[in-house]
Design brief:
Structural class: alpha+beta
Shape: globular
CATH topology: Nuclear Transport Factor 2, Chain: A
Strand content: 35-45%
Radius of gyration: 15 Å
Largest sheet: 7 strands, mixed
Number of strands: 7
CATH architecture: Roll
Distance between the termini: 37 Å
CATH class: Alpha Beta
Length: about 130
């Protein structure tokens, strides 16, 4: 299966979409990840607002350079015809120091009619928890 998955979404399609996004990120598949966002996608999170998949991919590449061994786990929370809500947990090591961090939150995704991400709104806990191994 390849992304995007076009609406209308049912539970199976939405869950598969979430697992593929997780896989693309965790396996470092930048080209596949880039192909999931529409050219004019809007990204919002706790810190920034971006427009277009070029800006989004620049952010993701920057994140991968700063956050070593970044792993994310997403679970489908809810879905509708063209919307998906995801609960996520992430874990990584800071590239500048040897500290391990965890974070969690929710992502709200709106797809366009072809199944590409048109809107990506990430809401995280706002505070990172430093982990001790």
């Amino acid at each position: 299966m390849r992304l995007p998955i076009a609406p209308p979404l049912d539970h199976e399609k939405a869950a598969e979409f979430v697992k593929k996004l997780e896989s693309f990120w965790n396996e470092g598949k930048s080209k596949q990840l880039n192909s999931v966002f529409s050219e004019d996608c809007e990204w919002r999170d706790n810190e920034r607002q971006l427009t277009g998949n070029t800006e989004i991919m620049n952010l993701m590449n920057e994140c991968r350079n700063e956050k070593v061994n970044y792993r994310v786990r997403g679970e489908l929370w809810s879905h509708s015809f063209f919307r998906i809500a995801v609960s996520f947990q992430s874990e990584w090591r800071d590239s500048k120091k040897d500290s391990k961090f965890r974070n969690c939150g929710h992502v709200f995704i709106r797809l366009d009619s072809s199944g590409k991400i048109k809107e990506f709104c990430l809401s995280s806990s706002g505070s990172l928890s430093e982990c001790r191994d």
